[in-house]
Amino acid sequence: MGVDQNKKKSDRTKESRDAVQLHRQISLLPAVSFIIGTVVGSGIFIAPKGVLMNSGTVGLSLVVWALCGVLSLFGALCYAELGTTFPKSGGHYTYLLETLGPLPAFLRLWSEFLFIRPAVASYVALAFGRYVVEPFFTPCSAPSLLIKVVGILGVTFVVAVNCWSVKVASHTQVTLTFIKMFALVLIIIPGVIALAKGKTENFQNSFEAESLSLDRLPLAFYNGLYAYGGWFYLNYITEEVINPNRNIPLAITCSMVTVTVFYVLVNVAYYTVMSPAELLQSDAVAVTFANRALQGLSSLIPILVSVSCLGALNGGFFGVPRMFFVGARDGHWPPIFSMIHIHRHTPLPAVLFLYPLVVLVMIHGEIYKLINFASFPRWFFLASATLGMLVHRYRFPLRPRPFKVPVVIVIIFTVVSFFIVGLSLYSDPWNTGCSCALTLSGVPVYYVTVHRSRVPPRFRHFINSCCKQLQILLEVAQQEVQTY
């Protein structure tokens, strides 16, 4: 009798493993690596200049870096509560849908697909291309066409890995994360040694400066928060995390504390070796630092920075497609996005269909404008999600919350996030206004296609026919097992 039960149990396990679904394969270490590997991209090698320029002093810039880390940790803790309260993948989309309704959730999908993801991925990919190519052309500037070609190759590699296997993508992320943390350690150690030897002249009178301007101080926070961006990516893959009630809060806390400590120490190392004036003159702070403090290893830094960019790119293509996958599963996005490869168990269409948009944006080259476009909806929807969390707490006080954040943390993060949104409207009304208009352009699309479908039957039949042909071509099918 016991043998028969064990055989039946083994058969059920095999059926579950072979069923078309996204399996729970992400344990604590890959989860931590996923967050750190996505957060630590090009930002820490670019943003120090912007933080110092707008804060005006060395001391205040270090305070800004620490406070940006604390604010990012607050936001990450809010998302840890949301991720354990609503055990579905999809991140922002899922939380807006559950707390504020379908229209804000659809607008999040619309803006992410239309311009946020192409802009962010293109920016990181071009940073990757630049750090790979420029060492071969020093002291001359590298050809922009070659930078774009190498950036596209980087995107192609990441897309191929994420289409091929969840496990391979996860292991790639862990490996790239360890390499990029090695890069940060390589910067920190010479700075700490120099500091221990008494090289502290750049920290003298570090809070005194005539250049400090209160209206520019928020821009310093804006630059710092850009470098911490990505702490919410684990919430995109909640259904693939093993024991999410434990591992999501633990991974978020460990990773964000680690990143904050490392970021502050990296900036201390920068200021120990370089004067504020030298830092402001440098377009590649890490490379300038390496030429000063790591003369024997200076050629290694661009390679490590490019690996760091590749890790951030991989994290983005691993997480964001899950949001479109969940949106399509709920009927808010074309159904082809909700399908999984029948053998590889990856959300292949959702990953693959982002690729041409990113390549198009990279070829067009208007990256900085699109980054400005991307910032407004990103912070607006982050603030909306945490505001929705407060609303949900009020409406459903008895709802089980395996991880609960003190309400003061939620309020602080929500208020500061809406302040950042208001600041962007004040400081850059044109780009912010265009971004707002592009986001709101999803409203008529929602009411025509989702709320009450007014799509002509002939056009609907054409779309369904295309989806079936793509399904056959890509060898994908709908999820067979409910994973939430």
From TrEMBL:
Predominant place of localization: membrane
Record Gene3D superfamilies: Amino acid/polyamine transporter I
Sorted UniProt keywords: Membrane, Transmembrane, Transmembrane helix
Annotated coiled-coil segments of the chain: none
Compartment list: Membrane
Membrane topology type: Multi-pass membrane protein
Bilayer-spanning residue ranges: 26-46, 58-80, 114-133, 145-166, 178-196, 216-236, 248-273, 300-325, 346-364, 370-391, 403-424, 430-450
GO CC, one annotated term: membrane
Lineage top rank: taxon: Eukaryota
InterPro entries assigned: AA/rel_permease1, AminoAcid_Transporter
Pfam family for this entry, one: AA_permease_2
MF terms in GO: L-amino acid transmembrane transporter activity
PANTHER family the record matches: AMINO ACID TRANSPORTER, CYSTINE_GLUTAMATE TRANSPORTER
Name this protein carries in UniProt: Uncharacterized protein
Taxonomic source organism: Mugilogobius chulae (yellowstripe goby)
